[in-house]
Protein: Dihydrofolate reductase
Organism: Flavobacterium aquaticum
Amino acid sequence: MLTIIAAASENNALGKDNQLIWHLPDDFKRFKTITSGHYIVMGRKTFESFPKPLPNRTHIIITRQKDYEVPEGCIIASSLQKAIDLCPKNEEVFIIGGGEIYNQSIETADKIDLTRVHTTIEADTFFPEIDTDKWKLVFEEFHSKDEKHDYDFTFLTYVRK
């Protein structure tokens, strides 16, 4: 199963200057819980936005750079399809960004785990529109902003119709 996981604002903003544009600890916890023990597929810029590889996950990094060097345990692929081909067929695999990789994968993904951040914010990277003719909302959980979270947000899970 191919699952897209992302946090995006009301205007589908994901990030700016290769950085996240909010700090939502509960979203980070959910991301860690959902993706731990699995393969995660990302573009090179997304990988480079991490201080180090995320623990307990197999990283597949999509890049066209032939001589791109990555830490031990990370895998390089030259396209989204080649990245998916490197993943186990009987396990859930997560697409974790960035914007271009989300755009390429939304037509083939089986599920979307989206944290909708209830704000409109300036960004340079965006999540694709979710076509509700193709996707069914099966889970929704609202969280109010508090001392640790600057914005209200909702965990949403969509499955392909």
